[in-house]
Prior knowledge:
Order of helices and strands: HHHHHHHH
Amino acid sequence: MDYDLFAHYGPSLLRGFGMTVLCWAAGTALGMLIGFIVALARRLPIPGLTWVLRAYIEVVRGTPFLVQLFLLYSGGPFIGIRLDATTAGIVGLGIYGSAYFAEIFRGGFAAVPKGYVEAAESLALPPAAILRRVVVPTMLISILPALVNMMIILTKETVVLSILTVPELMYEAQTMAAETFAAFETIFVMALFYWLLVEVVSRLGRRAERKLTTHLTQKAGAVS
């Protein structure tokens, strides 16, 4: 292994890794926001809305992420949507992830015991307060592992953004490989960076799950 390559290409690889983290974090946040809104909207008794939202989820989940990126980036100008590569990558990640997050949130809503909601309603709590103080904290316990798993999946989907010339890790690694023909070193450094990102996300997810469980347990004990 040629360690001199890492010294020469290290700064560009770190910049690419930083761009990967930025695109992943922004895309994941956008996807969770859209997914939560979609899951909430599906609970509304509006004729036709559930069908439209379900169709949106099925179309997004049923088409490859790369195809969605091309439609957004290359097809967007035909309908007046012009985005630079990085913005298109973030929005594309958000749209792609939103369909999966929406299903995760939908399952979380269904897992909340009806008795919890009925008890909150008997205390004359408004719907917004019931959602914020009862439904969301309870559902997070059951869906947090699935949320973390989806976040990890999105970290790996960022490699596709290099096709749009987003200067993320894959793009910088491909540049390194093209200039040096060092295939093993390129694959090794990419695997190392992505393993590091996935490990950090996994540890943060487990820590959040422990804290949330402890908080709700203490809260339940105080109420009883």
